[in-house]
Amino acid sequence: MALKQTASQTIGPFFRYCLTPESYGHAGIAGASLQAPGLKGEKIRIAGRIFDGAAAPVTDAVVEIWQADAEGVYPETAEPGKFAGFGRTGTDASGQFQFDTIKPGTVPGRGNAWQAPHIGVIVAARGMLGHIFTRLYFADEEVANAQDQVLASVPADRRRTLIATRGADGVYRFDIYLQGDDETVFFDV
């Protein structure tokens, strides 16, 4: 008898309760604030919305981020009072999410190249068979962005979907489009 792949299932309505219990009044393992007192680096806020293929907000997505600290070091442990590097939150009724974190530093890449400051972003939502992965780069890091091998591998006309822009309020905006003309670039990992 030949073995077959198990049938795929969509992520059910249960995941938000389990992965973002803060919205239900329970403690979680990660939240939307990665800032702790005494952390080195520039404190920033990232805010955005997630849209589906019809440009409607996705109101039940989970967004996770993973990043280096201001010195370009990924944390090995999430000790209390230290930079965790990992955050998770759900989208609200308008599809919005936000994180309070610190701006990451440059990190080593392949060869002797450096990667521009960036944040890894993972999105899960109802109807998706798996998580999707993208990166958030910063518009005010033009020199580092121009030297980043990963960003350079993306067609020039699509790179804008990976760039967060800082508004007059100081907040970095990063909207994610799951499909359509403005679809965000997603990576295979």
How would you describe this structure to a colleague?
It is built from three helices and eleven strands. The chain is globular, with a radius of gyration of 17 Å. It has one domain (15-177): Aromatic compound dioxygenase (Protocatechuate 3,4-Dioxygenase, subunit A). The strands form two sheets. Strands 1, 2, 3, 4, 7, 8, 9, 10 and 11 form a nine-stranded mixed β-sheet that branches. Strands 5-6 form a two-stranded antiparallel sheet. The two termini are 32 Å apart. With 189 residues, it is mainly beta. Helix content is 8%, strand content 28%.
> Total domains, how many?
1
Helical segment tally? Answer: 3
Quaternary state of this entry equals single chain
Percentage of residues in DSSP E strands: 25-35%
How far apart are the termini?
Answer: 32 Å
Radius of gyration: 17 Å
Q: What order do the helices and strands follow? A: HEEEEEEEEHHEEE
Uncertain ranges: none
Average pLDDT reading:
87
What would CATH call the class? Mainly Beta
CATH superfamily (homologous) name = Aromatic compound dioxygenase
Portion of residues within helices:
under 10%
Q: What best-fitting shape do the alpha-carbon axes yield?
A: globular
**Class from secondary-structure proportions:** mainly beta
Q: Which sheet architecture does the biggest sheet show?
A: 9 strands, mixed
Would you report the number of β strands?
A: 11
According to CATH, what is the topology? Protocatechuate 3,4-Dioxygenase, subunit A
CATH architecture type: Sandwich
